[in-house]
Design a protein that fits this description.
By secondary structure, the protein is mainly α. The chain is 57% helix and 0% strand. The chain has 17 helices and no strands. Helix 10 crosses helix 15. The longest helix has 32 residues. It is globular, with a radius of gyration of 24 Å.
Length: 391
Amino acid sequence: MSSLGWIDFDEAERQRAQRIMALFQERETRDELGLGAIRDSIADHLFPGTSTIQTRLRYMLFIPWLYRALEKREIPEAQLRAEARDTEIRLADALKAGGESNGVIGRDAGPRLQRLPSAVYWAGLGAWGIRAFPGSLDSLFVALRGRGRSRGASGSEDALASAPAPAVWNPALPRMPDDLLDQANFRLTADEAQFLIDRLVASQPTALLTMLAREGIDADCDHIWMHPHLSAFPAAARRLVQHGEIFSHVMHGAALLYNLALSELRQRDDWIEAYRERLAAWRDDLDPGAVRAWSLDEFWSVVEHPAHTVRPAAKRFVTEWCELVLGADQVISAPAARQLVEQRERRLKTSQSRFGNHAVRDRWTGASGADRLSFRWAQAKSHLRDLANAE
């Protein structure tokens, strides 16, 4: 079994490593053709602080509430970590006691839960300015217990006073309900919703998510480019959404062709028929004129994000796929298109390529990244609905 060990780089490197580890556990982030950096750049511009494994918005308050109470405990680090875990698991029980079923992290796993809510929401808490402490969750435990060591070394209360507690949470954080760990729910109060909106305005003033939250706009559409208020989006956000729509549509064809090619290698007639039908529908829906007018140079410019690096090979792959889409009437059967997709996957996965490794291919279950990229709109939409339904 392989493992990842922590190396004591600076905090930016630590958080980048955490994001990479998180990707392995996020079902919707399967990135068979190396488009993840582009996808995540668009998502982080539009909906910063979100991730595909977030469920309900009130976790953005649950975590600070629970940890603020734990920070007052003068106990060894190992015990603090254990109590923090137990508290998060108790939260799942409290949510079930409060009548919640959907979106409860740990609802079924209970004490076996591997990925705690704090890990799911930690990055978002920082991005929204709810968390003031700049480090990782691990470094928070270390920092808090460092205060205890300072007192133990001198045996005096003065020593503790000289090592002030690190500022962890925004001072305007609303008050925790007294019965949170007995009975909880996902309904935000009006004050809690306003606090979250204020944090977004202060920390992410130009994000589309902030504008939608501030204006109380809640819309039930499958993709952000189908939003009924698209024309009212700020110009920069509207332009990025329009780029995202074309990118999502065009590259969906490459993902479908990848799945079709694997289905053929597996000799699964049912899968083959399904992907041929989906590719035909994809081609019928594609607007060649819009693709020809699409400026990739402008796209790379607006997509650029400091947290993500789009490799030249990924840009070449997108460019070459677009050229094939415009140049081939039947991309599904074009040898160059199939070769481009296969070579891209082989370079990315090397010995684990499903095209070259029979054992890996035989474990394939019939779908990998076969849905259109949506840039975390589902999570953003859920959060906006929670804000709109605050009581």
